[in-house]
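Exam revision sheet. Question 4 asks you to relate a sequence to its structure. Input first:
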Amino acid sequence: MKVDNTVAVAREAPEPPASGDDLALVARLLRKDERTFSSLVDRHHGVMLRVAQTMVPSRAVAEEVVQETWQAVLEGLPAFEGRSSLKTWMFRILVNRARTRGVREQRSVPVGIVSDGDDAPEAIVRALWSGGQSAVRATPETALLDGELRAALETAVEALPETMRAVLTMRDLAGWTADEACDVLGVTEANQRVLLHRARVRVRAALNLYLEGKQA
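Answer key, structure tokens:
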């Protein structure tokens, strides 16, 4: 019998090292440049919070994890060797802490997926998450529908397994590349693609059910 080892296979392609911009940024942070640190927090804090929320039971716990992550980033900067991008390094710290906290909160993290699927984009997720106009339909009740769809979307995403939620958050909310998501979560390219596909299918199905109920 053929055994599928998709989950256990590590990524073979080496991840890109830190760029010159990353190293310059780290140098400024090591000089205690508060403006640089504030800019870094502004750029990544929101996504960090959403990623953490995929692995812990509440927003309050996620906020604690993110704060702990920022502290760990500051403390770990002198040891940053540039073997990965600064963003990848930071989000690995976040994911490790969130997973540890999730276990402590008696939540489990799925280990992976073993089938394949397509990687079609889902503009609706980005549009609703970002607070833009509805990507589903335009009606005189657009504003109200957007608010309700947003709530339906958040409910659908919350119902996903944790790793699916993390991949969906990184790819469709934060606009990360597949390689970036794989590097941070430690999954293969094939697993990332399947996780994202399945997450999008489930969210799309939940939103379709919601819209069918509105039209009934």
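Marking note for examiners. The two ends are 49 Å apart (CA to CA).
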